[in-house]
Amino acid sequence: MKKFLLEILIFSFILILTIKGIKSTVPFYWGNKLMEQKIEYLESSDSKYDTYFIGSSKTFRHIDPILFEKITGTPAFNLGCSGMFALETEYMLDNFLSKESFKNTKDIYVQNTDYMIIGEQNRHTLRVNYYMDTKRLVRGVNYFIGQREYSQAYYHLVAFIENQLCIGQISEIIDYKQKDKRNLMKMVADQNGFYSLEQDLKIGKSKQLENRHNRYLKSVENNTYTKRKAKDIRLVELNKGELGIDTKGTKIWQIQNNPIADPKYYFDRGHYNLEGAKKYTKQLAHLVKKLNESKKQ
Amino acid sequence: MLFNSVEFLLFLPIVFTIYWALSKKLILQNIFLLTASYFFYGLWDYRFLSLIIISSLLDFIIGLQLKKHHSQRIRKILLSISLLVNLGFLLVFKYYNFFVDSFVSLFQQFGYEPSITTLKIVLPVGISFYTFQTLSYSIDIYRNKLEPSKSILNFFTYVAFFPQLVAGPIERAINLLPQIERKRVFDYKNAKLGLRQILWGLFKKVVIADTCAMFVDPIFADYTQFSTVGLVAGAVFFAIQIYCDFSGYSDIAIGVSKLLGIELMQNFSFPYFSRDIAEFWRRWHISLSTWFRDYLYIPLGGSRVSKALQLRNIFIIFLVSGFWHGANWTFIFWGLIHALCYIPLLYLKKNRKNLNVVAENNVIAKPIEFFEVIKTFIIVTFAWVFFRAKNIKEGFDYIVGIFSNTFYDESFISKVGVKHQDLYIIIFFTVLMFIIEWFNRSSTFGLGKLPNSKVLRYVFYVFLCLTVLEFFSGKSEFIYFQF
């Protein structure tokens, strides 16, 4: 039995080493196309930023870094990305801040820190698996066990195994290495990573997005939409140790509350339109400015 | 639980560790094995565990009663109860709707409209397999070939033994029960072979069968849209798919059993290297064909009866074998085709002509052998079209399509909805699989013999593992689960 177990151990070691070797050929953000474009743009760009916004579509579609800079005087970039929830955001931050070129970042603003529910339709997909390392597994499993959502804890474990064993990823890695890199869309680059849903609808002409928008307009017209309560924006500094992120100079802030209730500022059920995004960014920028000024005093 | 799932990847090492940790106490080891088996099955649908338990309990009691009673009349009654209940389960869960539908359409031919409703019945996974196992137990005791098990735990573990519970091999109590009853000893060589067989089974299922399905499903779903090339490709890919799917499952089951110190019977012996249909049936789903041989064909007189009765027996065994696969006329028709191909061999006394492996002691087959293998493959593939079709008419239309749409259609790949790359990949891996199996055709499975060099073997294992991991979807069920 000992000989058998030893041989399994040796073989597993060789196999895992091979897998790690294959995986080392792709950068940490390879499973998220938009993030890939944004980070590669930042690495090739001469502009330097002190502040980054990171999170889901609610960051990507709501925060205009140029407007933010106008008010606060701080150069900023939007690293938001649709469908990027707590664990993926933490993974990105962890890896992003350990890169030499981003080590001097002063502030990071995180907006959506909800944990993603892994649904049946996105189980076993690269987008759900690629960021599932040991840190993310421990945090995800702990969180869902705390919530008594055991199937979610289990799905996170499966995603971790699939990622560590490179299940279904080798051909994606080959594709990734072979395909021509797609640069960040000029408009998104010009807007420092921000891209409102209205702009996306005009340029992308997505039928799905159009339907979503029309459905929302109809619900407002019929007065059947879910009414919201506005609450002033709040900034809470996050404990980096708890997040498992080890950076010295950078502060990580969580943006809390939704300050806009009026349906005219919305594009759909959960996202602002361009006007709403500007209004939201202004409020956030003024709060940051106030905070910076109070620190100086 | 599927063998090709991450769940099983977690399940197997846990079971292996606890199982051998309990090896000093046979009772504890068997309790654990039974619990693991029920858990394995229960993850699919725990409600149907009751069927396995009822079937096991009934045959356990009948086994003991058969031993106790010497009166032939009582023994016959006891055996009839076992047959009635076990076949009754099959009849209700698998064939009820088929009989009702057939009955209704028969009456409709004569202008009657009987109002009999079909039921929404879910087919319990593996029912055809474990029912046949429990049946063979009772029959063997009735025939005084087997002593009944005195331990309910051992008997329940035999019926529910998880590696072969849902898709075979259909293991007889004569072989498996004594292994469950005695202390198992870990065997290094056997365990290593077991791992190798699991890897080969996964390769066949995950890499080849599932990729073939990407071609087969769209072609059979919309066969009228395809030319000869597409239809032939669909049929050939299905022949490869069903072989790799089913023999892949058997390889994994046998391999897992070897890890647990239990030997299961060989279920496939490279059937596509057969030179005639008789040889094919000695190599395809061996546990089922020998089951029917021992419990149906021989009791009917086998080949030691008049020519007319031989003919009857052959038809019965092939039609029943077809019907075992499912409640559809297509399976019966599939059995009929095989019967029609087998009968000439029987009458010409050529059915036992090819008992050895093809090109024995040679690397390459002689042209005549090669021709015979190809001919057999074509016949088998032709029959598979009916097996896969929704109904017999569709099967015929498919065959007619092959001969009537004799034009080359370049768009066949795009109609299937895959990339050219996928076609090259599946061809590459299928050819590789057949080459490896060809060189191992004297072994019990495709990786029975490998080069002596450890480095070479490790490189090959790493290649197979990476390929399996790449194609691993963790979602696709085995075709034979539906039987």
Question: What does this protein look like?
Answer:
The complex is a heterodimer of chains A (297) and B (483). By secondary structure, chain A is α/β, with parallel strands linked by helices. Chain A has one domain. Chain A is built from 14 helices and five strands. In chain A, helix 4 packs parallel to helix 14, helix 5 runs antiparallel to helix 7 (134-146) and helix 7 runs antiparallel to helix 8. Chain A is globular and about 70 Å long. The model of chain A has no long low-confidence stretch (mean pLDDT 88). Chain B has 483 residues and is an all-alpha fold. Chain B has two domains: 24-183, no CATH class; 189-482, no CATH class. Chain B is 69% helix and 0% strand. Chain B has 19 helices and no strands. In chain B, helix 2 (26-45) packs across helix 6, helix 3 runs parallel beside helix 5 and helix 3 crosses helix 6 (152-160). The model of chain B has no long low-confidence stretch (mean pLDDT 90). Chains A and B meet through helix 1 and helix 8 of A and helix 1, helix 9 and helix 19 of B.
